[in-house]
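Bump. Still looking for 2-hydroxyacyl-CoA dehydratase structure tokens.
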Amino acid sequence: MRKIGLTTTVPVEVLLAAGYKPIDLNNLFITSKDYSSYIDIAERDGFPKSMCTWIKGIYGACIENDIQEIVGVMEGDCSNTRALIEVLELRGIKVYPFSFPHSHKKEDIKKELDKFMDIFRVSIEEVEKVRIRLNKVRDLAKEIDKLTYINNKANGFENHLYQVSLSDLNGDIDTFKSELKSVISNIKERQTIDKKLRLGYIGVPPMTGDIYEFVQDFDAHFVFNEVQREFAFPRADKAENIYEQYYDYTYPYDTEFRIIELKKQISERKLDGIIHYTQAFCYRAVEDIVLKEKLDIPILNIEGDKLNTLDARTKLRLEAFLDMLSDFKEER
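Sorry for the wait, here they are.
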């Protein structure tokens, strides 16, 4: 199978129907033991230090791992992706464009998906067959999610890891499906996690994966990962077709549409507070203003940059926030 890199979650059903092995460059970057070398590659090639680390990491991962074809999301994801794509094309990498229309109209989304299918010469029937197959894997991810917020047996990092991995299914559907089944079986055998505070994580998946372990020392655990859950398409089984599925995907569209689902999950999961993670030099940091205004729940915004672990200042801010939530919960 030919490898194809992804700059973010895209209609992977189309790529699989076309016989490709999808590789999420974000996951390839952040899970590398030497992730900082990917950043160095980008900066040596001229990427400024004041640019988002994820963009530089994606570039480095693409170059270092000899990815010759990628799907670049031109609208609905990162504002820097266009520039990234221009540099990758300069390096001889074949780029296939895809957009999540800002209009968020069904007819526009259908037009983009049809265009994407035409590029890879696959039919809607072929894509729907793959979608049905993937939905069985997504059901397993939903089970891990329920084991997190209902049964309190899966921890926040596991919830994050197995949902975010749905972007490319770790490159192999059947192997990933078997892994999920094994993980679910093991989690079910555990004792419940007994923590005082129930946290939500919103925003892009973190560079600092140790945040999930850190909060446990303060009688808290994450029972909701917003964007990771969207990458796993938890409502895909309710969509009649791929067009509806990608219409009901909150991540790439306007904040108002995203907030509807956030309010629902805050209530359903009985969250005490939210950590909003943003990346340095990313326009999405401005969304924090809107989220704090629209969501009736305490929110702490933390910012990541190059480090893949929490720095001392962020740990101090998290500790103070969790102490405040604990006091507030006791008062209630």
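DSSP finds 15 helices and eight strands in the chain.

Edit: fixed formatting.
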